[in-house]
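Tutorial sheet, problem 5. The two components below are modelled jointly, 1000 residues in total.
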Amino acid sequence: MRRLDLWMLLATVVIGACAVLAQSSTARALASPGFVNRQLIWLAVSAVLLVLFSFTDYRILVRLAPVLWGGSMLVLLTLFVVAPLRAGTHSWFVLGSYTIQPSEFARVATLLAVAALSAEHREGQLDLRRIGMLCAAVGLPALLVALQPDLGMALTYVPILLAALWLGGLPWKAWVGIVLVGLAAAGGAWSFYLKPYQKERVLTFLDSERDPYGAGYQQRQSQIAVGSGGVLGRGLRGGTQSQLRFLPAQSTDFIFAVWAEQTGFAGSALLVLTYVALLWRVFAVAFCARDRVGMVFAAGIGLVMAVQILVNIAMVMGVAPTTGITLPLLSYGGSSLLAGAIALGLVQSIWRLRFANV
Amino acid sequence: MLGKVFLDSAWFVRDDLRPLQRRLVVMLLALGLAFLAMLARLWVLQVVQGDRWRAAAENNRLRRIPLEAPRGTVTDTHGEIILDNRPTYQLLLFPEEMKDAARTESFLTRIEIADAGEVRARIARARKTSHLPSIIADNLRWSQVAAIAAHQAEFGELQVHPATRRSLPAGPAVAHLVGQLGEVSPEQLAVDPSLRSGQLVGRSGLERAFQDTLGGTPGALVVVVDALGRQISSLDEEPPILGHPLQVTIDLQLQREAAEAMAGQVGAVAAIDPRDGAVRVLLSLPAFDPDLFAGHLEPARWRELNDDPLKPLHNRALQALYPPGSTIKPLFAAGALADGLRTPAEGVSCSGAVTIYGHPYRCWLKGGHGGVALTSAIEQSCDSYFYRLAHDTGLERLASWATRFGLGQPTGIELAGESSGLVPSDAWSRRARGHPWYGGETISVGIGQGPILATPLQLAVAYAALVNGGFRVTPHLSATDFPAPQPLNLDPQVLATVRHGMELVVGGDRGTARRWSNLPARFAGKTGTSQVIRKVEGVKWYELPWEQRHHALFVGYAPPEAPTLVVAVVVEHGGDAAAVAAPVAARIIQRAFAPGFDTTAVKPNLPEGVDLLPTATAEEPDTPDTTAASATPSTPTGGAPR
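Model answer (structure tokens):
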């Protein structure tokens, strides 16, 4: 245990505690106490998984990456066949009263695959073939997720590719190309892919007065919740925005608003700083990793989490459009917690083995 | 510790990882900046703008429901209720909680709150004051209350709210008297701090005149609601302060009697106590259903009423102007006696016409009245006598007498919107008509015809002065607060002579209204028929279409010896004063002074098959000259007025 990074563990535990407090509050508002119990079960399972994966050798998993990645692709494909339509998407397997969201686990597998692909090439060797393989490794699962359709989740795959290309030393001309392609993709998505309600969200974000009772409703309520928290908040379980259910999707996408309303700037800054500490440790692990695989994996998971946190909180504060990106470790959802625990466990494993001469 | 990490790693790291570490540091710097920006934004949102958002959150969950103050009740002089309140249901809309305006709109249209366009307009208006609830429907039917309750879960922004609404047991008979209510205007709010936005205030009639007494102060109820609009608990109640009750001088019995006697007619009745000016009857016809104007929303029928050529929203008793016709003769007679221009004994010979300025002015009686003196000229309404009087005295004196009795100026009643009427002068003629006064017009004015106009209430006030010993009274509705009568300094002997003439109008052998002399309660007065078009020889009045018939006027008083009631009646296009207007006054006087007498026995005296109702008016243009002060004077070559 002493060979694990205790600061990262501590940060994880603090965030987990915040999650329990926030979730118990929304469970009260939504009058469904079962939510908290489930979240507690998921947290316990996650803790076990985290420790378990801390003591595996990440290099073995990286070696298994092609199998894990391929398996994930198969699972994502079968989702289209067997998964029922829930909340408008084919994102979940249903097992009794539990649901599993494979895209969360597929993301870890994708990270492993990207790390594996980054393993052997040397500086300056990031050739076109390698770039192509990286793009395929990330693009295929992202595309399958986007088709479910779950655009928010698909977007969280992008940082993996960016991290791999950045650390791999992609020349600046290529970055220019990526920006151009990204813009073209955004334009194409606007014209052909985005649903009217998604366009509406973007337009609403650009002009918040556009439709205060339609698409802007959620963001306005969320903004009110965060803002009304003030300096010290309205007390746990005390916020009217969450307790009187003006706040939408408050156990998942807008959980940060619940926390911010009840604990104010003090609590929300504490949570953000804890996230920063956690990320700092993850990147420290990347910095200290013994090899490229560990470095890319840790940096990848760090960047994915950082982007998720930034985009989600920006959305909750009303400065980014609503995208359906959840807040890691805080939003309700077993799959997200479990996959997060596995990823963080692997980061611990990288830390544990940083000096290993095996 | 962090430094140690970097130092440690520097020792053990593989050379080929160093470029990756450099890039990692760049990535960290970028992320660090992003997190800093996020913290800054959180600071702004929660610490800097915290209070603002807190207020928004309060608004979100707290509903402030206005509690209307029930307005004061109004009773008549005997304590009978004129105006009361009854329970009703209003529909409140909390626009900030509305998620789908189109759905709400179609729901409200479906339960027949109003037609789609009107519902949309009301919702749009409600959204302008988004932080306050708006009343978007008034006077809900039970079926509507039930429909809203059944769909409450879908439309959390709607709330059925118990309230009160004005109830008028006497109905249209008191419509103009009571007047209309409406939501307070922004201008009124700016002037009077005791008013609250959305409050109902009187727009006309008693409701407006006595707003301060009747109004009360609205309260509010602050309740906590959830996002579905369900009330969770109430936080604060500011109880409304009820309006004060008011007793007015109106006599509802007489008011109803007047309405029945005038049923189907167009015109007005004003009755006052000549001793102090207390208004007993104030009626205008056609009337409207006063319940239409008792709430917050303009009724759908408003436009229809407003566009009606008969102008039912107009309070004719104090707004409509009529040439007084022969009812002005007692005023001029009193003036002539007082100024010494005539003596009671001085006689005139009436041969059916008088030639003045080379022009024949005809008396209404073709064969002439023969020798008439002042009292008999009033009794028989001899035009020749007053043509000569007008010619001998001139316009200035006629005008001064009319003004002395209160014509040409508002009477000062508490009700708003009163017309001044018109007493002509040369200056007025040049200003309003652009030409000097013609001498021939003076002769017409001498019989109350031409550019001299008065309201029914002004006529009642003028006659009150004739019969109360010469005091100008201010007609008033308040039983307690009114100005004292002002002496006009008229010789009692003069007034007694004129009153004798008016008693003969009903009681004399040749009086124009002698057919009403055998009713149990005796009365006196003067008939007046004011001309709408020139009289055509040989055509009886009832053979003319309604809108071409003359206005029928009668101003009466009772009891003749010590009058306590003056009644002025105008029946528009009534045709014949004695046959149509006098019986209305007679009925009111019988009701007041002959208890137990069946007043329905007093009927208009009409030939067989004559219809008094304005049936064919809808397609006709406005009647020629009834209300226009600038109407061109008609030279009465045919002697219509009596």
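Marking note: Chain A has 15 helices and two strands. Full credit if you identified this.
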